[in-house]
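Researcher: I've got a protein sequence and the SMILES for adenosine-5'-triphosphate. Could you write out the 3D structure of the bound complex as structure tokens? I'd like something to compare against our soaking experiments later this week.
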Amino acid sequence: MVVDTVSGAAGALKLFQKKQTLRDEVRGEVTSLAALPPHPGVMKLAVCLAMTDRMAIITEFIDGTTLSNVIANGKRIRDDALKLVLAQLVCGIGVCHEGGILHRDIKPGNIMVDSDSGVVKLIDFGLSV
Ligand SMILES: Nc1ncnc2c1ncn2[C@@H]1O[C@H](COP(=O)(O)OP(=O)(O)OP(=O)(O)O)[C@@H](O)[C@H]1O
Ligand SMILES: [Mg+2]
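Model: Sure. Here is the predicted complex with adenosine-5'-triphosphate in place.
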């Protein structure tokens, strides 16, 4: 988590070394996130920074966990809760597809659940087109 000490707003920072393949990955992630309308099911992009040897993006901070962590912790998700997760996930994917974006890396590690609200968010658009 990073904090804007002026506004107090929290964000999530993802740093990339500036290699060619990663430049493409950052470009894909930034282009896709910037193209999509704001939706609770899709992580929001705040800033993309280019430095001499690195790039960074700052997105909304999701105070929660990935579905892969939930699975790794051996937690059972009740059927009704799972239906809610899947319904939200389908909405998030739908927003991407309506915006002409294919995520191409949908997996438990790229799906986060906000701890307080239970809102499900698609993250990691590095492979998206
Ligand atoms: N917006 C966010 N808010 C809070 N945590 C996040 C956010 N985005 C990503 N994370 C955390 O950082 C991890 C890695 O993020 P991401 O999937 O974007 O990077 P990655 O380069 O693909 O890494 P990995 O290879 O681990 O998937 C996520 O699994 C999640 O735990
Ligand atoms: Mg990932």
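Model: The chain has a mean pLDDT of 93. The radius of gyration is 15 Å.
Researcher: Great, I'll pass this along to the crystallography team.
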